[in-house]
Amino acid sequence: MANLTFTLKEIEDLAHKVSALDQFLSKKEHELLLAIFASAAEQVTRNKAGRGVFPAPQQGAGSATLEDLQQQLLKAYIPGNEPPHGINAKIIGDVSGS
Hints:
Helix content: 25-40%
Structural class: mainly alpha
C-alpha cells in the first residue's frame, strides 16, 4: 500500500469530527487519545507538493476494519513491557478537555 498523504484541511475536518466524541470520553480517555495523536504526529513527513505523509498502514489484504485497528492498538501496548513508572507520551495542546 502507498503512503497516506493528506492536507491540512483534511486534518482539520477529521479533528472537528473527533472533537464530537470528547463529551463521551473520560479524562483518561481524552489524554490517551491525545497521546495517540501526538505519537502519530511524530511520524509525519512532508512531500514535495507540501502534503503531509504518513507511512503506509501495515495491514493484510483488503481494508482495515475497526476491529483490525483495535487489535493493532492493543498489540502496540503489551503489559509488562513498559518502564516501571509507566509510559511517557508527549502531549501537545490543552488536555483539560475544555
